[in-house]
Write a structure and sequence with these properties.
- It is elongated, with a radius of gyration of 28 Å.
- By secondary structure, the chain is mainly α.
- A hairpin with an 8-residue loop joins strand 1 and strand 2.
């Protein structure tokens, strides 16, 4: 058995299409907002050299637990920058 569907007038078709697009965009905006605010979103540690990925809700705990390794990483970065500065100063004096 075949059902014959009466074609929609063109204007009505575009109104329905526009409503579907708006609904889709609102859903995407909602999903994007959720992903930005979600406490389970994986974020990378902000300490240079620490590439650890943790859930946003666990970030403070990671910072506390990794304080010693973060100290060593930052101390190594300071040493590296001091070597660069000293090398440039020596090049200026020569």
């Amino acid at each position: 058995m075949y059902l014959w569907i009466k074609p929609l007038p063109l204007l009505q078709f575009f109104v329905i299409l526009k409503l579907e697009i708006i609904t889709h965009l609102n859903f995407r905006n909602h999903v994007n907002l959720h992903l930005e605010l979600c406490s389970n979103k994986a974020i990378e540690c902000k300490v240079p050299g620490c590439k650890r990925l943790v859930a946003r809700k666990d970030y403070q705990q990671h910072v506390v637990e990794a304080a010693e390794s973060h100290y060593r990483l930052q101390d190594g970065e300071i040493q590296r920058l001091n070597r660069i500065i000293n090398k440039e100063v020596k090049n200026i004096e020569i």
